[in-house]
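Posting this for the archive.
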Amino acid sequence: MKMNERSSPVDIEKERSWVIDIENKLAATYAAKPYEEEERWKNPSIFRLPPFIRKMKQEVFTPQVVALGPYHHHNPQLTPLEPHKERAFHSFLRSAGKPLGDFVSAMDKVVQQLQDSYYELEAEWKNQDKFLKLMITDGCFMLEVMRLNPEYCQKYAQSDPFFGSHALQHKVPYIRRDMMILENQVPLLVLQKLVCVEKDVSDEAAETEVTKLILGFLSPKMYMEVMNELSSHVHSLHGLHGLHALDLYRRSILFVPARLKDPPTTRGPPPTSSMLMRSAMELNEAGITFKLSTSPAFTAIKFDSRRGILTLPQITVDDSTEFEILNMVALEHLHAASGSEVSSYVVFMDALLDSGKDVQLLHRHGVIHNGLGSDKDVAKLFSSMGREVIVSHGGSLGWVQLQAENYCRRSWNRWRALLMHQYFRNPWSSISVFAATLIILLTIVSTIFSILQWKRE
């Protein structure tokens, strides 16, 4: 038999080698236990963003001042802060009064868990000694920054550019911003272990302190009265492993205290064909009114279909809104256990705020505090954020959308909306309608009087 002229023994060997390689991989995959495969995808909670997410807006996903964790550690624009991170590290050790070896020993016990928290960790950071040094340095820096207040700043020189009292207003806000970026996260397990050794407390006590510290730093006015309840709520979800500051902040803005929760319902997802959501002005024209929720949680949105009242939480829209929300949306896209509540909120608000008039209407009801200046800018902001966000079945707010649409489709509400849209949006049209109505009424009254007069005669 003649050998094919296009093939050679070398080609056949190469073909066989890749076939054997794939067969070996298939055998290894088949041999893996299901729970091992589950753990492989469940552990990572800190991700490098794929291009389709990063293209939403490059600058909101990139740290500007400080690199935390391995992903941006070698970014030349962020290296100027590295000496200051070292200073914070040394200051933390001096204040703790404990040998560095105690901290390293505690962290060494969980180093594999910490490495597993990062998706596709580069080879450089698989070196556990180098990785541990990075985690301890960055963790100590975060603790020092979050503890900064007028009293704590006295540890440092008054003129210290990053830890003195001057830094509280001029440097710390930028560091806070970078702590909200998904690629710039450090597992909370790092902070917990550092506090455990520093203060000789249990893991549970350290977890509570770290939770309060992070939420007090990221959202100083939110949930301070219910912090203990929030801390228990976060821990009950999945403990500290896999969590980080961004995830904890996300949990906090979705949290509704027990006293404000509605009774649980068992409804499933609404039909996809009814996922139309009208703008605030269109809803208002159909007779729907707006009410401010007693809770600031993004999930505190509900619709009273009997009275036509849409209850919404208050939101302050400013320069930080975009990067906070988009990084939480990115987390929901990439972490299977995160849910999609923030993504649903973005899509919902994008539909609700179609123009500056919609923003103005919700501002009058106390729902939106505009820190951007122009009402049109707020509408554009939600439009740009919602452009790339996709949630199935309307997301967690699907039933609210369905109820509001059904209310608008009632006969009287449709006629009311038509009248409002065509005749009462323009003040001159309103005056014309009023004048025409008045003339008709006067004509009717005049006719009645004429008839009565004729009968008397």
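Strands lie at 289-292, 302-304, 309-312, 315-317, 368-370. The mean pLDDT is 83.
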